[in-house]
Design brief:
Length: about 290
């Protein structure tokens, strides 16, 4: 059915039981009712790499609800969906940023982990030639499939109730503590994800830095010609420090930061700004 107003877009909303409107026309009507200019000028598509390197496309929509606006990021050709709700009278660029941030966090914090095992795991989730297990904390969205049957969305994948039950059997004998949240609420289950790191994990984070450094350093010397390329990888690496602070391990972030600074200071160079510039970046993240 076409929209009664623009006669162009598909009608999705029935207003006052009389008019059938598309989302654009509905927003125009409601925003005029409450005396606000509708927001049209924003990027309708965003692309985000998840932490498996897969590029995911999201369509951004907004919808007025009385004096609130709900913002939605819906994955194109996928099942991810994120949403926030904002006061209609406040600055909507902040709302869009908040939604993008939530979407990025959502696709990079995984609830399932891909198993590297060569053998077939009975109670894993099987998709293509990959198998996944449940992490011991995460987010499961309750949804329904195209036939209206209950299903679940985990990491953007649609999962049947049988599959979820099978996945949960890896924890037979444990309790599952749960909390139902509106889709627009913040997800805070990941906030302690770095809190308890094993020594092996800590060593891996340090080794990762050394591997980056070793690509550019020769006999404890780094040429000014290579600094630009080192910095690119170094910036990416410093995201880890930010995440450590954000997700509950400031102590290790500071340890790691100090170790990196000491290492950088031990390297010779013919560059005017190395490593003072890089050290400032670390200090700034660690607020030292
Ligand atoms: Zn319309």
């Amino acid at each position: 059915m076409k929209c009664d107003k623009c006669k162009k877009n598909e009608a999705k909303i029935k207003l006052d039981n009389t008019e059938n409107l598309c989302l654009d026309c509905y927003n125009k009507v409601v925003s005029e009712l409450i005396g606000i200019k509708d927001i049209e000028d924003y990027s309708k598509d965003i692309y985000i790499y998840d932490n498996n390197g897969k590029l995911r496309q999201f369509s951004i929509y907004h919808m007025f609800f009385g004096d609130k606006i709900s913002w939605l990021a819906k994955e194109v050709n996928g099942s991810y969906e994120f949403s926030i709700i904002e006061d209609a009278y406040s600055d909507q660029t902040k709302a869009i940023n908040k939604l993008c941030f939530k979407t990025i966090k959502g696709v990079t914090n995984k609830t399932l982990r891909e198993s590297n095992e060569d053998y077939y795991i009975d109670n894993a989730l099987h998709r293509g030639n990959k198998q996944y297990s449940l992490n011991d904390y995460g987010v499961i969205q309750i949804s329904d499939d195209e036939d209206g049957r209950a299903c679940f969305i985990i990491d953007g994948m649609e999962i049947s109730h049988e599959e979820l039950a099978t996945l949960l059997t890896q924890f037979t004998g444990f309790n599952l503590e749960y909390k139902i949240k509106d889709i627009t609420e913040d997800i805070d289950v990941f906030k302690d994800k770095y809190k308890y790191l094993t020594d092996e994990e800590k060593t891996n984070y340090w080794n990762k830095f050394e591997r980056i450094l070793n690509r550019f350093v020769d006999n404890d010397f780094i040429s000014y010609k290579l600094i630009k390329f080192f910095d690119e990888e170094f910036w990416e690496y410093t995201e880890l420090l930010k995440e450590l602070i954000q997700y509950g391990n400031i102590e290790f972030a500071i340890d790691l930061g100090q170790k990196i600074k000491a290492k950088l200071l031990s390297i010779d160079t013919d560059d005017d700004y190395f490593p003072e510039y890089e050290i400032d970046v670390i200090d700034d993240i660690l607020k030292l």
